[in-house]
Write a structure and sequence with these properties.
The protein is of the alpha+beta class. Strands 26, 27, 28, 31, 34, 35, 36 and 37 form an eight-stranded mixed beta sheet that branches. Strands 14, 15, 16, 17 and 18 form a five-stranded antiparallel beta sheet that branches. Strands 1-25-24-23 form a four-stranded antiparallel beta sheet, with no helix packed on it. α5 crosses α17. The two termini are 35 Å apart. The relative contact order is 0.12.
């Protein structure tokens, strides 16, 4: 296991050496980009579509939208979902039928006026033996709806049922796509057998009307081929997956000859990860959308060409990255989705969906502005996207653009044992170490982003050479308006390099009487007693010794590392090491395995380690609050020398590069995210925020929402009976006090953690004395700190 555990560590510290070499000498000036009138810009038109579902009625657990077809007159959209059911004590179980809370509608939109001209209730014609609609499609002016036993045709404008017939099912379920290449028609058909085995068929219809077909079929592996890319008017390439492997076939249309191609010739297609989302363009190419924008697959030139990115319009990127591309032409695109920010405590409704029409503008309205580059390893949420759109609209000098120059997956190795919490943790440490060192190199060389989101776990950046101290932007924060303990707990050597915009709480969820003497955490001795007597020997921290130790070390890291110097000779370090040696299992297990072994008589463990308590509803529903334990549950800090409170984990954090084009302009964006308006919007998503007034605003909304039958903490996504009707101001105040007990930001220097995980087991297993281990670990850590400068 140890070979498996430590094999991740072999190359990570190379980054530190590279960094120290690359940053020697005079730094290059930060590259400054200005927007010109000729830079692409797209105007947008957001079209509200009436889905047919009841307006204002609360949504239950699911909602999906499908674009099922179009012609010169109409766009047709299907919306499926369910309404929220009443609380269980309000249901008449003798008459209750879950189908009564499900809906399935078709919306017919006039292409010219963009108005919804008709909605069709599909479910009204279904018989009791038809459970749901399998699919719907629109061809030659007729809407066809298929269930397991029937097919029905509808007139789109009147909704009139034109025909009903029995559906003939073959042994193979199949779906197909059609493509026009030159004068040829090509159809790909993917079959799925009763044993869920997949194979494909390629049908080619020549200009003289003759059709021939070729099967792609293997007995041992699935073959999936649904896309055809035109190389010329008579040649095409077909991407396919055989099992888990990507392969490519070349198709000569004049002879219908299909041959396996050299995959190396088509490596450029690896960036196209979702072929099922591709749609044809008028020029015969395929187009697709991802979280950055819209791309065209040009098989002739062997590249995926960007034709639009989210920086080129004024919409909220956090919303439109979820939209589906449904129509494409050279200067116009049409997207389908929901352009709406609905707060958790308001509940979601199913009354509308949106089409967004995007058209090429004559010139860029932001010409002359200086670009500020923003980066997030996990994408942009709707609320940050909303703030970016506001900033870009109102700031006269600067324009924020997203960058996708860094891909976190490039640094991730997933070849580890999922059941071992230790090796999984190390994989994550290597990922953050790799990416944070890459960011540090670029920032110090003047090539990094100006603003960084959600990089709080990249402790390598926590220094003045990489990041700007944000203290000046929050130094006057009023304790009555802000959780100043969260602000103070974000400091490293007196500076704030990463400021939480929203956060979750990490700690031990258990009943209040189990608290240590501090009332907000456990000393080491108190935690041993808690694990032995309350948990029956089942330590809620399910990691093995090495990772467990690095976790405790990081929670008190400021005691050992300060101002670029490390000192592990302190007696407190030995107390931590001895505690782990004497009380912690050697190897970690998965959280699921721990949970199953720790379940108590009432079906839940009497204490549990959590790192995902995100908001008021999250506390009651998932942090072991009202359900399932009942009231009287709190969140305490993990074991420490002084019994300190829980840590907070940024869900959204912000940092400013020390090499930013304009730190003050970036700071204006920080201030925008901290306003009561934006903090309330974020808090209403069932998320903790640092603005206390915003937290209280969301608390009042949560009380009303949940006490009036609002479903689980996701605000309408959980369906069912909700979490109770006894949430009060006292409960919100109780949660506020837990926030006030939080000790510090949960962050981790991956390079240093890896050193400790490599060196400390020698002491835990008795191979070396602690002094010998400390000498080696201290020297390695100091070398890393020195190389960083």
């Amino acid at each position: 296991m140890k070979r498996n555990l430590y094999r991740f560590c072999s190359s990570v510290l190379i980054f530190s050496t590279v960094l120290s070499v690359s940053s020697c000498g005079k730094l290059s000036d930060k590259n400054v980009k200005k927007i010109s009138e000729d830079d692409p810009w797209f105007d947008t038109n957001i079209i509200d579509v009436d889905t047919g579902a009841e307006k204002g009625r609360a949504l239950g657990s699911w909602l999906t939208h499908f674009f099922i077809g179009m012609d010169d007159q109409y766009y047709i959209i299907e919306t499926r979902g369910d309404y929220q059911t009443p609380p269980e004590d309000k249901i008449d179980w003798e008459t209750y039928n879950y189908k009564d809370y499900q809906f399935d509608y078709l919306a017919v939109i006039d292409r010219n006026t963009k108005q919804t001209v008709n909605t069709i209730d599909i479910k009204k014609d279904l018989t009791s033996s038809e459970y749901h609609v399998d699919n719907a499609y629109y061809i030659k002016g007729i809407i066809t709806v298929s269930t397991s036993i029937k097919e029905r045709d509808y007139d789109p404008l009147t909704g009139k049922l034109l025909d009903t017939r029995s559906r003939v099912l073959s042994d193979d379920n199949a779906f197909s796509n059609n493509y026009s290449i030159g004068d040829y028609e090509v159809e790909t058909v993917v079959y799925q057998t009763e044993t869920n085995h997949r194979y494909s068929c390629i049908r080619v219809t020549s200009p003289d009307g003759k059709t021939s077909e070729t099967e792609l079929k293997r007995a041992d592996k699935d073959i999936y081929a649904s896309v055809v890319l035109a190389v010329s008017d008579t040649r095409a390439v077909i991407p396919a997956t055989v099992g888990k492997e990507k392969v490519y076939y070349e198709l000569e249309l004049t002879t219908n000859e299909l041959t396996a191609a050299d995959s190396k010739e088509y490596e450029w297609l690896n960036s196209v990860t979702y072929y099922d989302g591709c749609i044809p363009s008028p020029d015969g190419m395929l187009c697709y959308k991802n979280e950055q924008g819209i791309y065209r697959v040009n098989a002739k030139n062997k590249k995926a060409e960007e034709v639009f990115n989210h920086n080129q319009c004024g919409l909220n990127s956090g919303l439109i990255d979820r939209f589906e591309l449904v129509e494409y032409s050279e200067d116009r695109f049409l997207l389908l989705g929901l352009y709406d920010i609905t707060a958790a405590y308001e509940g979601r409704t199913a009354g509308k969906v949106n089409l967004i029409e995007i058209t090429k503008a004559d010139k860029n309205p932001h010409a002359g502005k200086t670009v500020l580059e923003i980066y997030s390893p996990h994408g942009v949420d709707a609320y940050t996207g909303d703030a970016v759109a506001r900033f870009n609209e109102t700031n006269e000098k600067y324009f924020i653009e997203y960058t996708n120059r860094y891909n976190i997956s490039d640094f991730y190795d997933d070849s580890f044992d999922e059941k071992n919490a230790d090796v999984k943790k190390l994989a994550n440490l290597n990922t953050t170490a790799g990416l944070s060192n890459k960011l540090a190199i670029d920032i110090m060389n003047g090539d990094g982003p100006d603003i960084l989101l959600d990089c709080s776990s990249y402790n390598r950046l926590y220094n003045s050479k990489c990041l700007t101290d944000l203290t000046p932007f929050v130094k006057d924060a009023d304790p009555d308006k802000y959780f100043t303990n969260i602000i103070e707990g974000s400091k490293t050597d007196g500076a704030i390099y990463q400021l939480p915009i929203s956060f979750s709480i990490e700690g031990i969820a258990t009943k209040i009487p189990n608290s240590g003497s501090s009332g907000k955490g456990f000393t080491l001795d108190e935690y041993v007693k808690f694990s032995d007597e309350v948990m029956n020997g089942k330590d809620p921290l399910y990691f093995g010794q090495a990772v467990y130790f690095s976790m405790l070390f990081n929670s008190m890291k400021e005691d050992y590392i300060s101002n670029g110097k490390v000192d592990l000779s302190k007696p407190e370090f030995k107390l931590l090491a001895d505690y782990v040696r004497d009380n912690v299992r050697e190897n970690g297990i998965s959280k699921n395995d721990w949970y199953q072994s720790a379940i108590g008589i009432e079906g839940v463990p009497p204490g549990e380690y959590i790192d995902y308590c995100t908001g008021i509803g999250g506390f009651f529903a998932t942090a072991m609050g009202i359900a399932p334990w009942g009231k009287g549950v709190t969140i305490l800090g993990i074991p420490s020398l002084d019994g300190r409170g829980p840590r907070f984990i940024p869900r959204r954090s912000i940092a400013i590069s020390s090499q930013a084009v304009d730190v003050k302009a970036c700071g204006e964006f920080v201030k925008l995210l901290l306003t009561e308006e934006f903090q309330t919007k974020i808090a209403m998503t069932d998320t903790f925020v640092i603005n206390r007034k915003a937290f209280k605003n969301a608390g009042s909304a949560a009380i009303e929402y949940y006490n009036n039958g609002g479903s689980s903490f996701m605000g309408g996504n959980g369906g069912g009976s909700g979490i109770g009707k006894d949430i009060s101001t006292d409960n919100v105040d109780f949660i506020e006090n837990i926030i006030l007990s939080c000790s510090k930001l949960k962050t981790e220097d991956s390079d240093i953690s890896i050193i400790l995980i490599e060196e400390m087991p020698a002491y835990f297993t008795g191979q070396k004395e602690l002094d010998a281990v400390v000498e080696i670990a201290e020297n390695r850590i100091q070398k890393v700190l020195d190389e960083r400068g």
